[in-house]
Amino acid sequence: MRARCPDFDEAEYRLNPDPVETAKDLRFRIDNKSCQWHPAPMLDVAVIDDPAAAVVALDPVRARLLAELAEPRSAAALAARVGLARQKVNYHLRTLEAHGLVRAAGERRWGGLTERLRVATAASYVVSPAALGAVAADPARIADRLSANYLVALAARLVREVGDLARRADASKKRLSTLSVDAEVRFRSSAERAEFAAELTAAITQLVSRYHDATAPGGRWHRIIVGAHPFSKETAKEKQS
User: Fold this and answer.
1) How does the average pLDDT of the chain come out, rounded?
2) Which helix (H) or strand (E) holds 117?
3) Per-residue pLDDT at 40
4) Residue 109 has pLDDT above 60, yes or no
5) Gyration radius of the chain over CA positions
6) Fewest CB within a 10 Å sphere: which of 35, 108, 155, 227?
7) Which of 2-11, 105-114, 228-237 has the highest mean pLDDT?
8) C-alpha 79: how far from chain center
9) d(CA 203, CA 210)
């Protein structure tokens, strides 16, 4: 697949080339002033559950590089965009690639030199609580189910479980079936908020009772989570403006 080289600047390239070390690294036949790159799709969101990968992604410089790699770029192009030496950028890119956060995206050639293109493996990333090991949030350790801590722990478990399932589904080229409902409501009073919570609980309990069958052959367990929390003052002001 031939594609136009993204962000290619001839003057910048002449000042800061990034040649591939050996011809054996070439994966595509390329022409002068052209590039070839992998058409593999980028994930919308990738969940990081490896502690070492989480440390790498959370580094401010590497996080900036990941953001710049939303489309294939060379080390030379990145160096110019972030204001770092190309050698330093290459060091960070190798580290990101070693942890699966960046992948090769082909090569491009100019003036007899060939440089590698890299692209982020996802448009955005979420660090899973699994990366924290034994200290990760766990709803089972929180007694107060009406507390903010319990809601946070539920959200953490959601990221951990769905992230793992999504990774397995992607590896097997299958689609993971999920359901998400995201709504906003502005209650007139705390009393009506309490009434809403009671009705919502009753409705969900009724639905679960109607469809739940613990012994159905071929059935599959699903987890249902319902949560509500107030907007921050800043978000509330945005909504009212």
Assistant:
1) 84
2) strand 113-120
3) 61
4) yes
5) 24
6) 227
7) 228-237
8) 23
9) 11
pLDDT band at 214 (very low <50, low <70, confident <90, very high): very high
Provide the pLDDT for residue 22.
32
DSSP string, 55-93: HHHHSHHHHHHHHHTTS-B-HHHHHHHHT--HHHHHHHH
Contacts of 214 (CB under 8 A, 6+ apart): none
d(CA 227, CA 231): 13
Question: Taking phi first (over 0 means left), then psi (-120 to 50 degrees means alpha), and beta for anything else, what does residue 137 get?
Answer: beta
Q: How far lies 188's CA from each of 34, 229, 237, in Å?
A: 61, 15, 17
Pairwise CA distance, residues 119 & 105, whole Å: 6
Is 127 a residue whose pLDDT tops 70?
yes
Q: Dihedrals φ, ψ of 172, to 5°? A: -95, 10
pLDDT (0 to 100) of residue 207:
96
- Tokens for 44, please give them: 């919308």
Categorize the per-residue pLDDT at 6 as very low, low, confident or very high, splitting at 50, 70 and 90: very low
Mean pLDDT for 133-151 is 93
- What would the DSSP string read from start to end of 156-170? HHHHHHHHHHHHHHH
Would you state the CATH architecture of domain 2-126? Orthogonal Bundle (1.10)
Question: In whole angstroms, how far apart are CA 140 and each of 145, 150, 183?
Answer: 10, 9, 27
Distances from the Cα of 231 to the Cαs of 158, 180, 198, in angstroms? 20, 19, 20
Name the more confident of 41 and 193.
Answer: 193
Q: Where in the chain is the domain with CATH 1.10.10.10?
A: 2-126
